[in-house]
Design a protein that fits this description.
Blueprint lengths: L1 H11 L26 H4 L4 H5 L12 E2 L6 E3 L6 E4 L4 E4 L5 E4 L2 E11 L13 E8 L5 E10 L4 H9 L5 E4 L16 E6 L10 E6 L3 E3 L1 H10 L16 E3 L1
Parallel strand pairs: 1-13, 8-11, 8-12
Antiparallel strand pairs: 2-5, 3-4, 3-9, 4-6, 5-6, 6-7, 7-8, 10-11, 10-13
């Protein structure tokens, strides 16, 4: 399995420091003739989208309780550069923020949002999901995800949506925000091996998804959905993968 993932990485992965949404030049979308069902046929580099066996997102059901290295987040507050890239709102990180995943220290490159959530838990999706994308030193990515639901206001997400460009382009937050506000303070974590959820769908991602969602203001969810009513890939087949659940 590891050899297969290494080959797919060499053939299909997008460059580190380039957003997933901007990684490929061929046009793709979330609906219509260039929607998810056709991604694998739009460009030779997108082949894994249709032929891969470890695609993401998935329904996180039937997890196995396990003990694994604690997920440690050393993310620094920043006045993030925000990009509306035509597929999502993305916050690009300056150097100096890291996540420790199973003992490996990985550098935060960016985080971005999907509506509704891409992953499901026992078949249920939430209003949104945030993905924190980290580059692994040996290649590939470690992505930390948190589900988002309507509830109490969240200062970090509120600031992002207040400043996010309404058309493709860039903006910068006026004040630093703490990205740790976008994940639950305490929660079990699902872990599994998967792929990018956008073309080229490279199977080079170690996923860590918090089991407990965070709350954000309904108005901020509405503001995001006014820009992107639906930017979530359909659930993919789990196949023979293990899903682990632990602290």
């Amino acid at each position: 399995m590891l050899d297969r993932r290494a080959v797919l990485f060499g053939l299909l992965s997008c460059p580190v420091c380039v957003s997933f949404a901007q990684a490929a030049e061929s046009h793709w979308s979330y609906e219509g003739a260039d929607g998810p069902a056709q991604w694998g046929e739009l460009d030779p580099s997108f082949k894994a989208c249709g032929a891969g066996g470890q695609q993401s997102p998935i329904d996180l059901k039937g997890a196995i309780k396990a003990e694994f290295g604690r997920l440690r987040l050393d993310w620094k507050p920043q006045a993030y550069a925000l990009v509306n890239n035509g597929h999502t709102i993305q916050a690009n990180a300056k150097p100096g923020s890291f996540a420790q995943v199973a003992g490996e220290t990985c550098a935060l490159e960016q985080f971005h949002f999907h509506a509704p959530s891409e992953h499901a838990i026992d078949g249920a999706r939430t209003a949104m999901e945030v993905h924190f994308v980290h580059a692994r030193s040996g290649g590939g990515y470690a992505v930390v995800g948190a589900l988002m639901k309507s509830g109490a206001s969240n200062a970090a997400f509120g600031a992002i949506m207040a400043a996010a460009p309404r058309a493709p382009g860039e903006a910068t937050l006026r004040r630093p925000i703490d990205p740790r506000l976008l994940v639950p303070a305490k929660s079990e974590v699902y872990r599994y091996e998967g792929s990018l959820t956008t073309p080229p769908c490279s199977e080079v991602v170690d996923w860590s998804i918090f089991a407990r969602p965070i709350e954000v203001a309904a108005g901020d969810i509405a503001a995001f959905r006014a820009l992107y009513p639906m930017n979530a890939r359909p659930l993919q087949a789990r196949n023979r993968r293990f899903i682990l659940l632990g602290r």
